[in-house]
Amino acid sequence: MTATDPLPPGSTIGILGGGQLGRMLALAAARLGMKTHVYCPDALSPAFEVTPHRTVAAYDDEAALAAFAEAVDVVTYEFENVPAQTAEFIAARVPLRPGARALAVSQDRLEEKGFLSDSGVPVAPYRPVYSLDDLEAALAELGTPAVLKTTRLGYDGKGQRIVRSINEAAAAFDALDPKPLVLEAFIGFDKEISVIAAGNARGEVVSFEPSENVHRDHILKTSTVPAAISAELAAKAADAARRIVGALDYVGVMGIEFFVLPGGEDLLVNEIAPRVHNSGHWTEAVCVTDQFEQHIRAVVNWPLGDVTRTADVVMENLIGYEVDSIVELLGPGIRPHLYGKTEARPGRKMGHINRVGEQTGRK
Amino acid sequence: MTATDPLPPGSTIGILGGGQLGRMLALAAARLGMKTHVYCPDALSPAFEVTPHRTVAAYDDEAALAAFAEAVDVVTYEFENVPAQTAEFIAARVPLRPGARALAVSQDRLEEKGFLSDSGVPVAPYRPVYSLDDLEAALAELGTPAVLKTTRLGYDGKGQRIVRSINEAAAAFDALDPKPLVLEAFIGFDKEISVIAAGNARGEVVSFEPSENVHRDHILKTSTVPAAISAELAAKAADAARRIVGALDYVGVMGIEFFVLPGGEDLLVNEIAPRVHNSGHWTEAVCVTDQFEQHIRAVVNWPLGDVTRTADVVMENLIGYEVDSIVELLGPGIRPHLYGKTEARPGRKMGHINRVGEQTGRK
User: Fold this and answer.
1) CATH numbers and ranges of domains, chain A
2) Which of A355, B105, B297, B322 has the fewest CB atoms found within 10 Å of its own CB?
3) Given CB atoms, is A326 within the 8 Å cutoff of chain B?
4) Chain A contacts of B305, Cβ < 8 Å?
């Protein structure tokens, strides 16, 4: 079997991470006749409810990782913070898709920005910050306000601070760990969009239409498709996606977040995630192939699927106790998806609904 | 909790039967945040790959059934031939949906035809056949050719014989077991359609658009939507579905097969199945709610879902070794669904593809 031979139905896909993304990947894999084996340290993980094959172990448990690798044909993951040592250990034993480079790039904001710039993709001006002196110099160059971020392990607004004046530099520097940090120019933008792109080992690259995303309390609240952007801007987003996927020889689905700059003619890449993405959950309701199936197709070396969309849609996350109202939320056009989490907590993503055919007031 | 209170996410649905229908029910239940527990005598059943909760035991194993009933909040099934004793045993312990009457009616062709006639739904003329004398008398009344069928356990063309002349009566009578049999008039028809209908304990009744079905070797090969029938005929089919679901106080999804009579203005019910149905697999590709989610919604007392269709579609079964070509079958508009069966055999349903947006040449 070569690296581009398709894995046959009945193969077993190992999934690192047992949250809702791993769960939805497992459900999609089942539709392709594949088995799944979920690896996660938390025995109550939602993905454990959709497969009989599980490993409950830490990501640095080499005996457990070795047995896991032995039991599967290929490994993928639901989160970009898979430890590098874990990724290396797995990749030495069984194909890991997407590969280690995608993880390395997306785990470190400095690496990511360097990679994106090198790939000809626009990003906000930024400076690395190893010391308070660096920060003060960077603030002088980029101006205030600016955004100071950790380079690693940030998500949903965690690990970042807005610095409104040079006087706030020391407090912000002290508040964020681990170092180094990165200072980004504070970019005014009209809206946020994202593109779910995919590549496979056959060299195919496909991306879904951009969605327009609204965050609340730093957590994605809605994704609307079509986004209210020009065809030209959509083409720029697709081009950026193609460059990124191509430059990484990427295998799998990737989420790429953009800021649309004032005027609506240009955009910047905010960040990339080497995995299925919350802002792609709309695809399951209205596309021939959804992002989860697309990712599994790439991982098993099948041709990428058709991303044609058959209706307008608004995806809305159900966060915390919102899920308790699920029965009342049902109605015309509503396609629900709950994650089977045992406990609702404030800020926890419990599920989502897709409003199919939602009148967006857009062409 | 009353009989119409919705079960909350995290409840466990017991599924009798571990084939592809049980598997697809389990996948849909997972999307609603429900757990599933599959009960099947065959340890290699496809549905066992999509849940960690399983019982491998015979349908008459009362200890296993009791433990199963104890472990779940509600029980449903993927096949209409659940033994009556099994159904009674379960229903005495935990809600069984659809209920025992639906099973009794659909397990016996004579019961079924009597029920349908009593409900004001047209069926082909038929006579019960307990003896060769009965058969000869029935042939004299209904004419030849006619179709002689077992009353129980027939599917995919098994358990039936066409009787072309009275001379064939004895051979046909001897060939079919168990007795009694039923003789049906041989109805010429233009085409076969089916309707997937649903009812719930809230009194809601909803049906999907009719599909037009083509069989090959007595096994469903394709379902096309929209069917090439008049709006008036579609309304007649929906009306028949409503009568059937209403007369049974039915909870769940039901497949209803019709013959469209020459001229296209009238139809007969061929048979009903108290379960999700192969001719409803198209719904997963193009409807807001698919038949599997619809069934689970009914079973957990949630409101029924929106059956709006967003594209034309042709569902094609992959039978036997056809599944080996799955990667070659992929292409624009194709949404695959494989069942994870370990071994292809001639005549075995291994998966299906939906051709979304397929040009049917119809309005």
Assistant:
1) 12-96 (3.40.50.20), 125-185 (3.30.1490.20), 191-356 (3.30.470.20)
2) B322
3) yes
4) 330, 334-335
Mean pLDDT confidence for B136-148: 95
Task: Measure the CA–CA gap between B276 and B289, rounded to whole angstroms.
Answer: 13
Structure tokens at A41: 């340290």
Structure confidence by residue, pLDDT tens digits, A285-302: 999 999 999 999 999 999
Taking the Cβ of residue A131 and every Cβ of chain B, the question of whether any pair is shorter than 8 Å is answered with no
Residue A191, marked binder:
no
Span A176-201, pLDDT tens digits: 999 999 999 999 999 999 999 999 99
Tell whether the model's pLDDT for residue A157 goes beyond 80.
Answer: no
Nearest-CA distance B334 → chain A (Å)? 7
Cα separation, A333 vs B309, whole angstroms? 10
- Distance between CA atoms of B55 and B353, rounded to whole angstroms? 30
Q: Is the pLDDT of residue B363 over 60?
A: no
* B contacts of A31 (beta carbons < 8 Å): 27, 336-338
Each residue's pLDDT tens digit, B53-76: 999 999 999 999 999 999 999 999
CA–CA dist B60, B320 (Å, integer) = 30
Beta bridge pairs of residue A38: A15, A54
Binned at pLDDT 50, 70 and 90, residue B267 comes out as very high
A285 touches chain B (CB under 8 A): yes
Give the helix ranges, DSSP H, for A92-131. Answer: 100-107, 109-118
What's the CA angle centered on A231, arms A228 and A234, to 5 degrees? 75
**Nearest alpha-carbon partner for A302 in A195, A206, A194, A237:** A206
Taking only Cα atoms into account, the Rg of chain B, rounded to an integer number of angstroms, comes to: 20
DSSP conformation letters of A321-359: GGGGGHHHH--TTEEEEE---S---TT-EEEEEEEET--
Whether residue B106 has pLDDT greater than 50 = yes
ipTM field: 0.94
- The gap from C-alpha A136 to its chain's centroid, in whole angstroms, comes to 32
Q: Quick one: A320 exposed, middle or buried, by C-beta within 10 A (0-12, 13-18, 19+)?
A: middle
Q: Which two tokens stand for residue B45?
A: 């059943």
